[in-house]
Structure formats: C-alpha cells, structure tokens
Amino acid sequence: MNTITKRCLCLFSILMLTVFSHTALAVADPSQVNTTFHMTGQVTAPNIQGFYGIIGDDGVKYQPINLPRKFKKDGLIIQFDAKLKANTMSTFQWGKIVELSNVAKITSSIAPEERKAIHLLLKRLDSFNTKDLEKLQEIDIVSRQLTKEQFDNWVAKYDHFTLLYVDISDADSTSITGSCYYTRELVNGMTLHGNTDLAAMTFTLSQTSSGWKLTESGSLSNQPIQYSADTLAALKEKSVKKYNTDNLATLWQAI
C-alpha cells in the first residue's frame, strides 16, 4: 500500500469518526416499536438548520422523519399518528425518532398548558376505564403508592369515567396546577340523580425527563358535599360553552 493510499484511508477514518460522533443511534423501546399511537403537540424549529421537531402534549420531544412540508411551521398545533423507529441513525440528537401518518392541523383556542393538562388527565381516566394500574402509574406518580389490590377494589366501583372540565390556576415550563371535574358511573349504586356521580380534584403536573407526570392530587377545598342534577347540568353547559363538548375525550379524536 503506497503512502498516498495510506493517507487517504487515514483521512477517511477521521471523517467517519467525526460524522458518527455527531450522530445519534435511536434505540426505541422494543415493546413500543411498530405500535401506532395518537398524539397532539406543537411543531418547533430548534436552532438546527432545516430541522423541525414536535413537542408532544405529553411533554416528550418527537423527531419526525417525514413531517409534510405544509406542517413545517414553528408553533403550529397538530395531531398525528406515529410509530417509534428502532435503531435509526440521526444527526440531530433531538427527541424520539418517529414516522408520522394522518397529520392534521388543530384549530383550537385552548391554551397550551390547558391542552397538556387535558391530555394527561384523559390518559389517567382511560387507565381507570381499562382497569390498568400499570398504565396509570406511567403518568401518575401519586398512584405508585397503590397496590394492585387497592386499585382493583377502587375502580371496581365505577365505570365510564368522562373528563368534563379543566381549570388552570398557574403554569410555567416545569409545572401546571389546576382543578378538574369528571363524571363516573357507579357499577352497583345510585345517587340522587341516577347512577352518574360527579367528582372533582386538584392536580399538579410536573415536567420530567420522560414527559409530564401527575405529581400531586387532592380534593377541591370548596367542593360541595353532594352534587345535585342541577350542578351537573350547569357544569355540562359550562363545558359546552368553552369546549363545544361536555366530553373532553372528543376534542381531538384520532383521525
């Protein structure tokens, strides 16, 4: 091998090391690969030439490999279906690498912090409806104190949890506090207005390395001891006026 060839090989090796030192190999959780999930979030243009990412309402950064050009607008609110891409090379080192489908713009007057709270609270109630403690504990740190038996005994009393209304009292980049109302149906019981019960809670959401989590919850200090049918009807009317629905799960239905 002559001197020129050796020098060329040496330069090539240095070049490859330089490239790969700035390249991230995205290794997705095997249990999540090829599983499609629905998400809402905001398109963002970090200080990376030509790159657009998505900050999901779950607080997770997503790096799309196929975001359509018409959605490459900083600050645009979108909904999309996504699949995590396993062992995918990227030069950006920004977020989870995903392949998108069914991307659509969201037109909504709901503030970003309220949208994030609604997203997490809907996931929380979904875990109640599906009787899935593991799913609950992924996003609700408070619930990690529960045993499976305690959880099963509690959720067995109720069904059809429905998020009705959310109020945000304070929010910044790392914390969101507020309160919410939701309905639930008693499996073997009745209230003064049928088997539908109205519940309320305060909450604090905190931004963690793996997204937004519920870190505190409690009872509303001004919560009435008993809710009447008129109270429930008034809340539903308030919800419809604000969201155009009294079931927040329908705000951004999967496409």
Q: What features would you highlight for this structure?
A:
single chain, 255 residues, alpha+beta, five-stranded mixed barrel, 11 strands, 34% strand, signal, Secreted protein
Low-confidence stretches: 8-28
Gyration radius, rounded: 23 Å
Beta-strand residue percentage = 25-35%
Shape: globular
Strands of the largest sheet, in order across it? 2-3-4-7-5
Q: How many helices does DSSP assign?
A: 5
SS class: alpha+beta
Distance between the termini: 60 Å
Helix content: 25-40%
Q: How is the biggest beta sheet arranged?
A: 5 strands, mixed, barrel
Organism: Pelosinus baikalensis
Signal peptide: 1-26
Keywords: Signal
Protein name: Secreted protein
Give a nutshell description of this structure.
The chain is α+β, with helices and mostly antiparallel strands and 255 residues long.
What does this structure look like?
This protein has a five-stranded mixed β-barrel. It has a four-stranded antiparallel sheet with strand order 8-9-10-11, sandwiched between helices. The radius of gyration is 23 Å and the shape is globular. It has five helices and eleven strands; from the N terminus they run αβββββββαααββββα. Mean pLDDT is 84; it is low at 8-28. It is of the alpha+beta class and 255 residues long. This is Secreted protein. Keywords: Signal. Residues 1-26 form the signal peptide.
